[in-house]
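Whiteboard transcription, Tuesday session. T.W. wrote the C-alpha cells on the left side:
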C-alpha cells in the first residue's frame, strides 16, 4: 500500500485543519478534485524585475505548470528571495545563504511533495539547491537560460568579459566614451543570464552535469522555445520523481560532485563554482574539500567560450551544449544517478558536436589542461584558487613585490594615481573583501590594472585577495585566500614591498617574509570594526564560514528532514 503523501497532512484531512487548508486554496478557483491526493508540486520562483537575468521565469513557470497538470499533479507557484548580481549592494553573495534559508523554510512549511527550482542569476541556483537539499524532497532545476549574443558594430560582444575590456580600453585612451556607451545597449538584447561562461551559466552547466536538471538545461537561450518545452517536460518529470521518491540525497553523492568538477574544467567555468559546490556538499554531507578541485587539473578546456575563449553561450547551445561535453568526457565520468533515474552517461548518448571550434574534441582542445589550481602556503594556509584558463601563462609562475590596498575604498582612491609606485611585476594585494570583511566576499578580486600601466599597454598582473571575481572576468587573479584578512589570516599581515611568490604548477602561494617578523606583526594586528551591527548582515558575519568551507552559515550545514508536526490553527 502506497503511504500517504506529505501533502495529505495539509489537504487530506476531513477535519477543521483540512477544511482551512483546502478552503483558503479554493479562493483561487481550484476545484474539489485537485485535492484528491495527487502530488502537490511547488514551483520555487526567483522571478523579479530587479533580477534582469531571471525576468523570463514567469513564462517558464507557466510551462512547468502545464507539465505538472499533464502528469496528474497539482502545481503551486511560490516566490522566494531573488538575487540580482548586477543590481545588489554590497554584493549578492551576502544574501545567497538568506535565499537558501528562504527556500528551505518555504519547502518545509508548505504542503508540497516535490519542488521545481526556477533560478538563473549567479547566486539563485546554488542558493535554491542548498535550501532544497536541506529538506530533501524530490527536486529538479530549470535554469533561466542565457541571453542572446550581444551585438555591436557587426561583432558579437559578451556580458562582463567585454565590459572589462572596453573599460580598460577607455582608461587607456583606445576607446571613446561615446563608443563605450553605445556598446551598452547592444550587450543585453533579451531576457536571460550572462551569455558568457559566467557563474550563472557555469552553475546551470554543473547542475546538469550533476544530474539535477534535464539534458540541455544549461545552454538553450532564455528566449528559445525549446527552453519553454524543457520546462514543460520538467513539470511532467517532477511528478514522476515524487512517485519514485527520487530525492536530492539519491543524486548528490560524491560522484556527482566529482563530475561537476570535471565539467567545470572542461567548460572553463567560473571560480565561484568552488564556494557554491562546497556549500551544497556541506548540506548533503559529502566531504568535499578544496583539494578535490585538483581532480580537474588535467582536464582539457573543450568549450571555446568567453572569458576563456572566443564564443558565447548561444553558440555553445547550437554546438551541442553540455551533452556534447559529457560525451567527450565519457571515459572520465563517474557513475552517478540523475533526475531521470538512470546514470549521467545517458545524457551523453547520441550527443554530437555540431561546431568543433565552439566545442572542441578531446584531440584538439582549446587548452590541454584547464582545471582550477588550488594554492597553499604561508599566505593561504587553508587554500586559495587561480583559474589558469583565464590567466596569462607567463604570470602563473611569478615573484614580485606587493603593493597593498587595505580595503576597496583605498583601491578606488589610488588605482589611477600617476605616481602609484608599481611596475608590471608588482603583485597587487587587496584585503578586507572576504566573507566577513566586506562583508559577503564580493567580486572585486580582479582589481583594475593601474591606469599608468594600462596606458603603457599592460593588460594583466598578478592580483591576490580574499575576494571572489565574476565568472565573466579574466586575468591572473588569486582568489578566496583563506583565512581571510578580517578573520586573522596572514593576508592581513602583508605590507607594501613584501615579496610574494606564485607557482600555479606547484600549488604555491608564499609570502617571503621571515616568520619572526610575521609573528611580530600578528601580535599587533587588530580586525577592522564591523560594518554592520544589526539584521541579517550581523547574523551573517557572526556565523559565516570561510571560503574553503563554502561560506555557508555554520548553523545551516547539514539538513533537517523531520516532518512538520505542529498545526497553526
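and on the right, the sequence the group agreed on:
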Amino acid at each position: 500500500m502506497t503511504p500517504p503523501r506529505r501533502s495529505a497532512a495539509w489537504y487530506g484531512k476531513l477535519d477543521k485543519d483540512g477544511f482551512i487548508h483546502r478552503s483558503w486554496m479554493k479562493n483561487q478557483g481550484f476545484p474539489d478534485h485537485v485535492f484528491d491526493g495527487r502530488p502537490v508540486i511547488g514551483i520555487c520562483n526567483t522571478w523579479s524585475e530587479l533580477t534582469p537575468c531571471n525576468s523570463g521565469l514567469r513564462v517558464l513557470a507557466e510551462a512547468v505548470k502545464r507539465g505538472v497538470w499533464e502528469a496528474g499533479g497539482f502545481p503551486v507557484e511560490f516566490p522566494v528571495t531573488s538575487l540580482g548580481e548586477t543590481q545588489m549592494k554590497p554584493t549578492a553573495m551576502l544574501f545567497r545563504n538568506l535565499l537558501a534559508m528562504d527556500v528551505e523554510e518555504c519547502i518545509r512549511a508548505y504542503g508540497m511533495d516535490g519542488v521545481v527550482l526556477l533560478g538563473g542569476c549567479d547566486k539563485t541556483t546554488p542558493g535554491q539547491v542548498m535550501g532544497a537539499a536541506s529538506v530533501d524532497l524530490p527536486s529538479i532545476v530549470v535554469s533561466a537560460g542565457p541571453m542572446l549574443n550581444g551585438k555591436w558594430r557587426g561583432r558579437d560582444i559578451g556580458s562582463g568579459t567585454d565590459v572589462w575590456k572596453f573599460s580598460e580600453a577607455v582608461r587607456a585612451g583606445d576607446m571613446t566614451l561615446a563608443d563605450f556607451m553605445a556598446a551598452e545597449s547592444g550587450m543585453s538584447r533579451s531576457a536571460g543570464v550572462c551569455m558568457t561562461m559566467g557563474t550563472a551559466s557555469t552553475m546551470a552547466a554543473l547542475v546538469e552535469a550533476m544530474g539535477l536538471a534535464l539534458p540541455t538545461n544549461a545552454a538553450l537561450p532564455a528566449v528559445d522555445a525549446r527552453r519553454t518545452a524543457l520546462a514543460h517536460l520538467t513539470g511532467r518529470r517532477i511528478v514522476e520523481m515524487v512517485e519514485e521518491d527520487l530525492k536530492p540525497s539519491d543524486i548528490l553523492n560524491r560522484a556527482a560532485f566529482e563530475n561537476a568538477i570535471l565539467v567545470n574544467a572542461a567548460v572553463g567555468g567560473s571560480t565561484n563554482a568552488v564556494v557554491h559546490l562546497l556549500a551544497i556538499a556541506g548540506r548533503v554531507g559529502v566531504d568535499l574539500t578544496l583539494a578535490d578541485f585538483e581532480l580537474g587539473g588535467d582536464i582539457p578546456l573543450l568549450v571555446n567560450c568567453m572569458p576563456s575563449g572566443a564564443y558565447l553561450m548561444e553558440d555553445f547551445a547550437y554546438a551541442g551544449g553540455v551533452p556534447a561535453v559529457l560525451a567527450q568526457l565519457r571515459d572520465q565520468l563517474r557513475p552517478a544517478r540523475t533526475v531521470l533515474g538512470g546514470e549521467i552517461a545517458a545524457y551523453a548518448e547520441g550527443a554530437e558536436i555540431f561546431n568543433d571550434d565552439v566545442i572542441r574534441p578531446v584531440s584538439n582542445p582549446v587548452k590541454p589542461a584547464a582545471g582550477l589550481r588550488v594554492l597553499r602556503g604561508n599566505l593561504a594556509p587553508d587554500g586559495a584558487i587561480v583559474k589558469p584558463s583565464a590567466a596569462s601563462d607567463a604570470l602563473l609562475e611569478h615573484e614580485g613585490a606587493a603593493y597593498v590596498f587595505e580595503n576597496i575604498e583605498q583601491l578606488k582612491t589610488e588605482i589611477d594615481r600617476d605616481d602609484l609606485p608599481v611596475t608590471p611585476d608588482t603583485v597587487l594585494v587587496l584585503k578586507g573583501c572576504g566573507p566577513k570583511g566586506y562583508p559577503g566576499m564580493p567580486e572585486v578580486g580582479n582589481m583594475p590594472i593601474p591606469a599608468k600601466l594600462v596606458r603603457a599597454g599592460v593588460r594583466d598582473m598578478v592580483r591576490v585577495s580574499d575576494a571572489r571575481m565574476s565568472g565573466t572576468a579574466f586575468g591572473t587573479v588569486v582568489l578566496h585566500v583563506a583565512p581571510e584578512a578580517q578573520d586573522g589570516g596572514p593576508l592581513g599581515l602583508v605590507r607594501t614591498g613584501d615579496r610574494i611568490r606564485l607557482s600555479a604548477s606547484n600549488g604555491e602561494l608564499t609570502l617571503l617574509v621571515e616568520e619572526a617578523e610575521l609573528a611580530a606583526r600578528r601580535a599587533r594586528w587588530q580586525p577592522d570594526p564591523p560594518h554592520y551591527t544589526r539584521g541579517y548582515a550581523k547574523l551573517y558575519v557572526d556565523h559565516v564560514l570561510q571560503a574553503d568551507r563554502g561560506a555557508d552559515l555554520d548553523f545551516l550545514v547539514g539538513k533537517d528532514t523531520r516532518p512538520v508536526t505542529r498545526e497553526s490553527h
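Someone added at the bottom: The longest strand covers residues 397-405.
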